[in-house]
Amino acid sequence: MTYDPNNIFARILRGEIPNKTAYEDDYVLAFHDINPQTPTHVLVIPKGPYVSFADFSAKASDAEILGFFRAVGKVAKDLGADESGYRVLANHGRDAHQEVPHFHVHIFAGVNLGRMIKPTDR
Length: 122
Ligand code: 5GP
Hints:
25% of the residues lie in helices and 20% in strands. It has three helices and five strands. The chain has helices spanning 8-13, 53-59, 62-78, and strands at 21-24, 28-32, 40-46, 86-89, 105-109. It starts with 7 loop residues before the first helix and ends in a 13-residue tail after the last strand. The relative contact order is 0.21.
């Protein structure tokens, strides 16, 4: 799948669509999800053009991968979720219902998240 430079997160990165920023550095932008599923629901995206987890893990540089995952940990800590706990989730492709084709992880926190996930029929 080729990267669509007009996907919604690319437009957020270019400042064409506003966002509620939680954190930003050379490698990532973290912002609050527009439709939060938990009291705290933040998305972390790399600044590079990667479609999905598969694309990012295969093609991103060591520095981008390091910068990304260090930032995810920092954002979760800064949100105050280290002690109570949080969940990091990345949806890749159809079965995971990935909606936006720019790699991102969700950080869910602020509530007891239950154990893991429940698969459903398509
Ligand atoms: P996915 O299903 O691709 O893993 O999740 C995409 C997430 O992006 C969804 O939770 C959705 O609410 C969020 N989202 C979609 N469009 C926007 C937007 O324009 N702004 C923000 N902040 N979040 C968005």
